[in-house]
Design brief:
Blueprint: E1 6-12, H1 20-25, E2 37-42, E3 45-51, H2 57-66, E4 72-79, E5 86-93, E6 95-102, E7 105-111, E8 122-128
InterPro entries: MIZ1-like_pln (IPR006460)
Pfam family, one: DUF617
GO biological process, one term: hydrotropism
Length: 129
Protein backbone atom coordinates (compact mmCIF):
# COMPACT_ATOMS: atom_id res chain seq x y z
CA UNK A 1 0.00 0.00 0.00
CA UNK A 2 2.99 2.29 0.42
CA UNK A 3 3.45 2.25 -3.35
CA UNK A 4 -0.07 3.42 -4.19
CA UNK A 5 -3.61 2.15 -4.54
CA UNK A 6 -4.46 -1.49 -3.85
CA UNK A 7 -7.48 -3.11 -5.45
CA UNK A 8 -8.44 -6.59 -4.31
CA UNK A 9 -11.16 -8.45 -6.19
CA UNK A 10 -12.74 -11.64 -4.93
CA UNK A 11 -14.77 -13.50 -7.55
CA UNK A 12 -16.98 -16.53 -7.03
CA UNK A 13 -18.92 -18.74 -9.41
CA UNK A 14 -22.54 -17.98 -10.14
CA UNK A 15 -24.60 -21.11 -9.66
CA UNK A 16 -26.53 -22.41 -12.67
CA UNK A 17 -30.23 -21.57 -12.84
CA UNK A 18 -32.23 -23.86 -10.55
CA UNK A 19 -35.19 -25.84 -11.82
CA UNK A 20 -38.71 -24.84 -10.78
CA UNK A 21 -38.73 -27.58 -8.10
CA UNK A 22 -35.47 -26.30 -6.64
CA UNK A 23 -36.82 -22.74 -6.70
CA UNK A 24 -39.77 -23.79 -4.56
CA UNK A 25 -37.50 -25.50 -2.02
CA UNK A 26 -35.09 -22.61 -1.77
CA UNK A 27 -36.55 -19.15 -2.33
CA UNK A 28 -33.28 -17.27 -1.93
CA UNK A 29 -29.76 -18.23 -2.92
CA UNK A 30 -26.62 -17.79 -0.88
CA UNK A 31 -25.87 -14.18 0.06
CA UNK A 32 -22.75 -12.78 -1.56
CA UNK A 33 -20.86 -12.43 1.73
CA UNK A 34 -21.68 -16.07 2.60
CA UNK A 35 -20.03 -17.61 -0.48
CA UNK A 36 -17.38 -20.17 0.44
CA UNK A 37 -14.69 -20.16 -2.29
CA UNK A 38 -13.29 -17.14 -4.13
CA UNK A 39 -10.70 -16.50 -6.86
CA UNK A 40 -8.57 -13.58 -5.72
CA UNK A 41 -6.98 -10.81 -7.77
CA UNK A 42 -4.70 -8.00 -6.61
CA UNK A 43 -4.47 -4.97 -8.91
CA UNK A 44 -5.78 -7.06 -11.80
CA UNK A 45 -3.40 -10.03 -11.40
CA UNK A 46 -4.69 -13.41 -10.29
CA UNK A 47 -3.05 -14.29 -6.98
CA UNK A 48 -4.77 -17.45 -5.78
CA UNK A 49 -7.89 -18.42 -3.88
CA UNK A 50 -9.66 -17.33 -0.72
CA UNK A 51 -11.92 -19.38 1.55
CA UNK A 52 -14.63 -18.31 3.95
CA UNK A 53 -13.84 -19.47 7.49
CA UNK A 54 -15.66 -19.29 10.78
CA UNK A 55 -13.97 -17.49 13.66
CA UNK A 56 -12.16 -19.86 15.95
CA UNK A 57 -10.71 -19.21 19.39
CA UNK A 58 -7.49 -17.72 17.99
CA UNK A 59 -9.38 -15.31 15.73
CA UNK A 60 -11.58 -14.13 18.61
CA UNK A 61 -8.46 -13.37 20.67
CA UNK A 62 -7.12 -11.17 17.87
CA UNK A 63 -10.47 -9.39 17.47
CA UNK A 64 -10.61 -8.72 21.21
CA UNK A 65 -7.04 -7.36 21.15
CA UNK A 66 -7.82 -4.81 18.41
CA UNK A 67 -11.31 -3.91 19.70
CA UNK A 68 -10.18 -0.72 21.51
CA UNK A 69 -8.31 0.50 18.40
CA UNK A 70 -10.40 2.74 16.16
CA UNK A 71 -7.94 3.28 13.31
CA UNK A 72 -4.37 2.45 12.42
CA UNK A 73 -1.95 -0.36 11.69
CA UNK A 74 0.49 -2.22 13.84
CA UNK A 75 1.87 -5.51 15.04
CA UNK A 76 0.53 -7.80 17.75
CA UNK A 77 2.74 -10.38 19.46
CA UNK A 78 1.27 -13.88 19.20
CA UNK A 79 2.30 -17.22 20.59
CA UNK A 80 2.93 -19.97 18.09
CA UNK A 81 1.04 -23.09 19.09
CA UNK A 82 3.29 -25.57 17.33
CA UNK A 83 6.92 -25.70 18.36
CA UNK A 84 6.70 -22.90 20.93
CA UNK A 85 8.21 -19.49 20.43
CA UNK A 86 6.50 -16.27 19.48
CA UNK A 87 5.62 -14.50 16.27
CA UNK A 88 3.98 -11.31 15.10
CA UNK A 89 0.63 -10.57 13.52
CA UNK A 90 0.21 -7.43 11.43
CA UNK A 91 -3.18 -5.73 11.57
CA UNK A 92 -4.90 -2.79 9.94
CA UNK A 93 -8.03 -1.20 11.38
CA UNK A 94 -9.95 1.35 9.32
CA UNK A 95 -13.39 2.56 8.36
CA UNK A 96 -14.78 1.10 5.15
CA UNK A 97 -17.60 2.44 3.03
CA UNK A 98 -19.83 -0.31 1.63
CA UNK A 99 -21.43 0.07 -1.79
CA UNK A 100 -23.92 -2.56 -2.97
CA UNK A 101 -24.19 -2.71 -6.75
CA UNK A 102 -26.56 -5.69 -6.97
CA UNK A 103 -27.09 -9.06 -5.32
CA UNK A 104 -23.98 -10.20 -7.20
CA UNK A 105 -21.61 -7.29 -6.54
CA UNK A 106 -20.44 -5.27 -3.55
CA UNK A 107 -17.48 -3.01 -2.93
CA UNK A 108 -15.73 -1.85 0.23
CA UNK A 109 -13.61 1.31 0.09
CA UNK A 110 -11.21 2.15 2.91
CA UNK A 111 -11.80 5.72 4.02
CA UNK A 112 -8.81 7.65 5.33
CA UNK A 113 -9.85 11.02 6.83
CA UNK A 114 -6.21 12.18 7.12
CA UNK A 115 -5.47 11.67 3.44
CA UNK A 116 -5.90 14.82 1.33
CA UNK A 117 -6.38 12.94 -1.95
CA UNK A 118 -9.94 11.95 -1.06
CA UNK A 119 -9.68 8.56 -2.78
CA UNK A 120 -9.45 5.17 -1.10
CA UNK A 121 -6.03 3.54 -0.75
CA UNK A 122 -7.60 0.09 -0.48
CA UNK A 123 -10.63 -1.17 -2.38
CA UNK A 124 -12.21 -4.62 -2.01
CA UNK A 125 -14.60 -5.92 -4.66
CA UNK A 126 -16.84 -8.97 -4.24
CA UNK A 127 -18.23 -10.30 -7.51
CA UNK A 128 -20.34 -13.29 -8.46
CA UNK A 129 -19.75 -14.10 -12.13
Amino acid sequence: MASGLVRIALECEKKSSPTSTEKKKKKQGVKLLEEGVWRSYCNGKKCGYALRRECGEAEWKVLQAVAPITMGAGVLPVEKEEGGGEGELMYMRARFERVVGSKDSEAFYMMNPEDGSGGPELSLYLLRA
